Every structure is written in C-alpha cells, then in structure tokens.
C-alpha cells in the first residue's frame, strides 16, 4: 500500500491551516501515518497465521479468529486514517475553485484565495466537524467490535465446528496492546485539536463580526 496520496493531501492542507491545524497535520503524519507504516503494519502482518488454538479441528481456528477479530485492527486503522483525512479535501477543492474562478474572470477576486474567510471559513468548519465526527465513530466502532480497547492473551471459543470450549492464543498481545493504546491516544489528541481549532475559529470570527457591527454603529 502506498500512502503518497495521503502525504500529499496533508501537505496541501497544511498550507491553508491555522496554527492548531498544522499541529493536527503533524500529529496525523508523524504519530499516526509513520507509526502505522513503520511499525504497526508489521506487528499485525501475520495475525491470522499466528492465532493458535489448542485443537486441530478443521475450521475451528478460522471461525474463532473471525469471531474475535471480525475486522483486522490494521485494516480498520488504515480506513480510519483515510477517512479522517478525506474531509480536508473540501478545503483544498474550495481553494482550487477560488483560484480557477480568478483565472476565468482574469482578475483578482480575493485578497488571498487560501485565506480562511467567507465561504472558505464555512467549508473549513464543516471539514473540522466531519473529521471530529469520524474520529469518534471509529473509536466507538473499535470499542464495540473488540469489546473494549484491549488485547487478551487468551480467548475461549465454543463456536461450531469446535467440538467444545477451546483455548486460543493471540501472538504478541503485550506489543499489540502498547500500539493499540498509542493509536487510541493519538486519535483522542486529534479530536481535542479539532475541537480546539473549531472553537478558536468560531470565537475569532464572532469577535470580528461583533467589532465590525460596533464600528458601523459608531459611524
């Protein structure tokens, strides 16, 4: 899997972001994308092959693995990274629309096409709300699918075709748990950053609008 597109997208968004938005981009790129590609992907690479049960009944291991891990952690993280980064495309597309509009009219229509104001401000706020919502949705999804943020050393399975309750062992559970906590923590940090940026922008432009009205009244 190549992550060049996501890297280029984050680099493009960084150009139009606020200071808090740039911190978000750094967290996603350094503490999520790089950690995923460099380490986490390899840890879960052979999770199915290394899942062992203390019985050789044909089909038992496959059914038990599917029951306890209905979706691979690593594929769900990859999907999460892509989904939470995608709303940033709205901002990139809006800036591109402004630039193309200026070229079409062959004159300057905006002081700065990448400045967060007017319609672009609304687009930026929508992208923040979508990113925050998707982060929360994936955290809830993780919790529901795996019965909490934990990797057990041993799971007991009694699903057919297993003839009785069998013990199944997960490989490298402690190492996986450390990365699980790290990725959940960075996801929570991204939610905090998104909410902080959302609050900052709303407060900043509320004050700006209030001051404009106040000046008009005085005039």
Automatic annotation (TrEMBL):
<feature type="transmembrane region" description="Helical">
    <location>
        <begin position="178"/>
        <end position="203"/>
    </location>
</feature>
<feature type="transmembrane region" description="Helical">
    <location>
        <begin position="77"/>
        <end position="97"/>
    </location>
</feature>
<dbReference type="Pfam" id="PF00029">
    <property type="entry name" value="Connexin"/>
</dbReference>
<keyword id="KW-0812">Transmembrane</keyword>
<keyword id="KW-0472">Membrane</keyword>
<dbReference type="GO" id="GO:0005922">
    <property type="term" value="C:connexin complex"/>
</dbReference>
<dbReference type="InterPro" id="IPR017990">
    <property type="entry name" value="Connexin_CS"/>
</dbReference>
<feature type="domain" description="Connexin N-terminal">
    <location>
        <begin position="42"/>
        <end position="75"/>
    </location>
</feature>
<feature type="domain" description="Connexin cysteine-rich">
    <location>
        <begin position="134"/>
        <end position="201"/>
    </location>
</feature>
<comment type="function">
    <text>One gap junction consists of a cluster of closely packed pairs of transmembrane channels, the connexons, through which materials of low MW diffuse from one cell to a neighboring cell.</text>
</comment>
<keyword id="KW-1133">Transmembrane helix</keyword>
<keyword id="KW-0303">Gap junction</keyword>
<dbReference type="GO" id="GO:0007267">
    <property type="term" value="P:cell-cell signaling"/>
</dbReference>
<dbReference type="GO" id="GO:0005243">
    <property type="term" value="F:gap junction channel activity"/>
</dbReference>
<keyword id="KW-0965">Cell junction</keyword>
<feature type="transmembrane region" description="Helical">
    <location>
        <begin position="21"/>
        <end position="39"/>
    </location>
</feature>
<dbReference type="InterPro" id="IPR019570">
    <property type="entry name" value="Connexin_CCC"/>
</dbReference>
<keyword id="KW-1003">Cell membrane</keyword>
<dbReference type="InterPro" id="IPR038359">
    <property type="entry name" value="Connexin_N_sf"/>
</dbReference>
<dbReference type="InterPro" id="IPR000500">
    <property type="entry name" value="Connexin"/>
</dbReference>
<protein>
    <recommendedName>
        <fullName>Gap junction protein</fullName>
    </recommendedName>
</protein>
<feature type="transmembrane region" description="Helical">
    <location>
        <begin position="118"/>
        <end position="143"/>
    </location>
</feature>
<comment type="similarity">
    <text>Belongs to the connexin family.</text>
</comment>
<dbReference type="InterPro" id="IPR013092">
    <property type="entry name" value="Connexin_N"/>
</dbReference>
<comment type="subunit">
    <text>A connexon is composed of a hexamer of connexins.</text>
</comment>
């Amino acid at each position: 899997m190549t992550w060049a597109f996501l890297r280029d997208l984050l680099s493009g968004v960084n150009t139009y972001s606020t200071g808090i938005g740039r911190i978000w981009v750094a967290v996603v790129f350094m503490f999520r994308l790089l950690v995923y590609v460099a380490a986490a992907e390899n840890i879960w690479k052979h999770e199915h092959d290394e899942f062992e049960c203390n019985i050789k009944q044909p089909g038992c291991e496959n059914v038990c693995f599917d029951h306890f891990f209905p979706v691979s952690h690593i594929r769900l993280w990859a999907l999460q990274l892509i989904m939470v980064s995608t709303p940033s495309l709205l901002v990139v597309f809006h800036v591109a629309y402004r630039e193309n509009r200026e070229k079409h009219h062959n004159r300057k229509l905006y002081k700065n096409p990448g400045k967060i104001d007017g319609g672009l401000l609304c687009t930026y706020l929508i992208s923040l709300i979508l990113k925050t919502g998707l982060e929360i949705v994936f955290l809830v999804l993780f919790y529901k699918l795996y019965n909490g943020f934990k990797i057990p050393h041993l799971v007991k399975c009694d699903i057919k075709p297993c003839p009785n309750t069998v013990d199944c062992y997960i490989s490298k559970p402690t190492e996986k748990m450390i990365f699980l906590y790290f990725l959940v923590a960075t996801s929570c940090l991204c939610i905090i950053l998104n909410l902080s940026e959302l609050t900052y922008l709303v407060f900043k432009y509320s004050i700006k609008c209030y001051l404009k009205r106040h000046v008009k009244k005085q005039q």
